Amino acid sequence: KMNPQAFALSYLLLISAAVYGGSTSNVLRSVPNSSSGSVSSEEFDQYLTDPEKFSQSVSGSIPSSFDARSKWARCPSVSKVPDQGCCDASFALVPTSVMTDRTCIVTNRTDVVYSAYDPIACCDSCVHWSRDKCRGGRSEEVWKYWANTGIVTESCLTYPYFRDCRQQTCPSRCTSMGSRTVANDKRKGQMYYTVSSGVQGIQQEIMTNGPVEANFDMYLDFAT
């Protein structure tokens, strides 16, 4: 289990460049459809009442720029922007990327890369549609799944959705680690929480502890 201070989750609007160390890219390589990583406003409001809220104190002034890639250069995952391929998987790719970054920042381990395939294929509450798990899901459920059940590493279940999105059953054995079982590769976090102290508090959280996840309202006319 990981240090409870090592992980943070933010559901407040945040400039994406701050999350990925100055890069304006995000995890989406195409325009998302109407169900990609989305929940109703009622579900979202309910989620905000669930995890513990952490108020990050702001020490000094916030700098005009901050590059997480430079501060944590020993962690290659901080510089990586995952490609979701043919699957609407941002709901799983973003949380697992943050988990990976925070694990490296705290432990200096670069070999623990959390698998987004695990919550997509194996967490029914994480996805919108059980018959097609590549039609979006709920990132808050991915965090709960990580804390309660655990998520395997990428070396156990490699993300497969680049050309073919039909493989959606939950494997019992790792696909790339011989006879090792999925259950034996699970890793849990002790807790997850929201940062409730405004934009500067979130900026301080990023500079102190590393990348966060941010969600925001998307209106129906977004693509127009």
UniProtKB/TrEMBL annotation:
Chain segments annotated as transmembrane: none
Protein name: Cathepsin B-like cysteine proteinase 6
Matches recorded under InterPro entries: Papain-like_cys_pep_sf, Peptidase_C1A_C
Pfam families tied to this protein: Peptidase_C1
Keywords: Signal
Signal sequence region: 1-21
Entry GO MF terms: cysteine-type peptidase activity
GO BP annotations, alphabetical order: proteolysis
Domain Peptidase C1A papain C-terminal as annotated: residue spans: 62-224
SUPFAM superfamilies: Cysteine proteinases (SSF54001)
